[in-house]
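Try this one yourself first.
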């Protein structure tokens, strides 16, 4: 059984309860975690608070050294962590390895910034005085992460927090805690002082709520559903705790009449079907100019049917594992059924795969739909699975209006050879990211975060550090 890391010790829940973790490919129990309660929340937050002054006062150079060492430890643990991730989450092992390795890369990136945080010199009107700004860590950070990319998403919070001198209480999703716990133990073995990094396991409603509402938490870094984000914002208001919210998305992809269609279909397929479509940044609505629509749909449908082999996560030829939970598959099925009932045509997929190997898991195939009503669930909600609606538009004006009609604003993309079209899309799409002729990959170096109901605040980039530090003004008089 996995444990929680609290104050440098690996511990069980104080109430002694546990939660089973299951393999989405066959429902088998693959491990268990402590089921934390409010007493465990208090213990974890107290440990983080106690460690804060020492960690905040540790030099940037020393923090960077420990983080570089942690990256080495994480690299050494990649195979073990990736196996746990594939087992509990359902993604193919090869993809789990990429994700585990990304944690080490993220540690390296922010280790490189830990000793470069600094303030400003500010001349004042009075010549006998001057102002400076200094950066202080915001304090104890509650990092709350979802199940779709559990490792990448905890790293996006832990790494800038550590670099800035904050201490952390990390609560992973209760269905994907094992890989996170193992990765944290590897990172912590680099020699971080007790209490700098803590983990807490349990249900969102129980430990999540208590953590968010805890008076000694200074910042909440949350990734998850928009509805949960709204609840967190409300709970955080009680103590005026600062929040960053990385929430749901429904990224539009525009394919113009002059696009390289082969390249666009390759990007759309990865953008939609990677991780069985369970990605926040993902191609979730496709807008095709009339001239290339038929060619795109034919090529894209072929990719969906032939290239995205479904299977269990450890088979070498699997490109798409099962969906993570029964609920998740039922949700996608209901969204597809709603569109079909209202006149949509299924170009690929659309029904569960048959065969004994799929009988016990939550498998669903790569699915492409056309003639989808624009007010149907597939067009207006986030589709968190491998299904995508394709729409036809007459020009860029219509494409941009429709792309922006969503309540979400996370990612977006355009495929075109026309620089003017690319520039308009970049300037006018309401989203935190626009890719031009490229697939939806978030880079460590570029700030990432949503607009509208996709949330606010940035992860990645130098900008991420800003939300883990507080700029303080100081006036110096002689
Ligand atoms: P979720 O909101 O159900 O859960 C996320 C985390 O919040 C889990 O750890 C959960 O236990 C916790 N939680 C649940 N209720 C809570 C509460 N009341 N108080 C505190 N914590 C609580 O999300 P999910 O289903 O695990 O993840 C999928 C969603 O995450 C999708 O909407 C997806 O788009 C979004 N997501 C966004 C990004 C991004 O960067 N914008 C990245 C990945 C996933």
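Now uncover the answer:
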């Amino acid at each position: 059984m996995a444990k929680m890391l609290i104050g440098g010790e690996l511990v069980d829940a104080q109430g002694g309860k546990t939660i089973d973790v299951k393999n989405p490919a066959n429902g088998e129990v693959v491990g268990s975690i402590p089921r934390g309660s409010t007493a465990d929340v208090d213990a974890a937050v107290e440990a983080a608070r106690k460690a804060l002054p020492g960690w905040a006062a540790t030099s940037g150079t020393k923090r960077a050294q420990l983080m570089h060492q942690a990256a080495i430890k994480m690299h050494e643990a990649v195979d073990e962590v990736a196996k746990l991730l594939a087992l509990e989450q359902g993604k193919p092992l090869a993809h789990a390895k990429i994700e585990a390795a990304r944690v080490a890369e993220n540690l390296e990136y922010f280790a490189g910034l830990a000793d470069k945080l600094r303030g400003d010199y500010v001349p004042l009107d009075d010549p006998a005085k001057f102002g400076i700004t200094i950066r202080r860590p915001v304090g104890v950070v509650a990092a709350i992460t979802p199940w779709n990319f559990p490792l990448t998403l905890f790293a996006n919070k832990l790494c800038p927090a550590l670099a800035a001198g904050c201490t952390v209480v990390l609560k992973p999703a209760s269905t994907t805690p094992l890989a996170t716990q193992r990765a944290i133990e590897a990172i912590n073995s680099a020699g971080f002082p007790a209490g700098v990094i803590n983990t807490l396991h349990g249900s969102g409603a129980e430990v999540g709520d208590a953590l968010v509402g805890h008076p000694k938490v200074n910042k909440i870094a949350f990734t998850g559903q928009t509805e949960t984000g709204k609840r967190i914002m409300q709970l955080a208001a009680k103590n005026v705790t600062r929040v960053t919210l990385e929430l749901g998305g429904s990224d539009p992809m525009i394919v113009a009449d002059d696009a390289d269609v082969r390249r666009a279909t390759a990007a759309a397929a990865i953008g939609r079907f990677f991780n069985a479509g369970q990605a926040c940044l993902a191609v979730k609505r496709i807008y095709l100019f009339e001239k290339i629509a038929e060619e795109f749909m034919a090529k894209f449908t072929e990719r969906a049917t032939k290239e995205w082999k479904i299977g269990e996560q450890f088979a070498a030829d699997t490109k798409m594992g099962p969906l993570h939970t029964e609920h998740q598959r039922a949700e996608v099925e209901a969204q597809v059924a709603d569109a079909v009932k209202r006149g949509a045509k299924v170009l690929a997929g659309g029904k569960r795969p048959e065969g004994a190997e799929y009988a016990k898991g939550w498998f669903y195939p790569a699915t492409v739909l056309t003639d989808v009503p624009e007010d149907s669930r597939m067009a207006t909600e986030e589709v968190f699975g491998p299904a995508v609606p394709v729409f036809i538009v007459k020009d860029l004006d219509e494409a941009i209006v429709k792309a922006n009609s969503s309540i979400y604003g996370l990612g977006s993309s355009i495929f075109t050879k026309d620089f003017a079209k690319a520039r308009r899309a970049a300037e006018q799409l309401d989203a935190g990211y626009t890719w031009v002729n490229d697939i939806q990959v978030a880079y460590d170096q570029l700030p990432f975060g949503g607009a509208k109901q996709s949330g606010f605040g940035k992860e990645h980039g130098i900008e991420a550090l800003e939300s883990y530090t507080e700029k303080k003004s100081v006036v110096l008089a002689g």
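Discussion: DSSP finds 14 helices and 22 strands in the chain. The pocket of nicotinamide-adenine-dinucleotide is lined by residues 144-149, 153, 171-174, 204-205, 208-209, 212, 223-225, 228, 231-232, 246-249, 280, 382, 384, 410, 450, 454-455 (CB under 6 Å).
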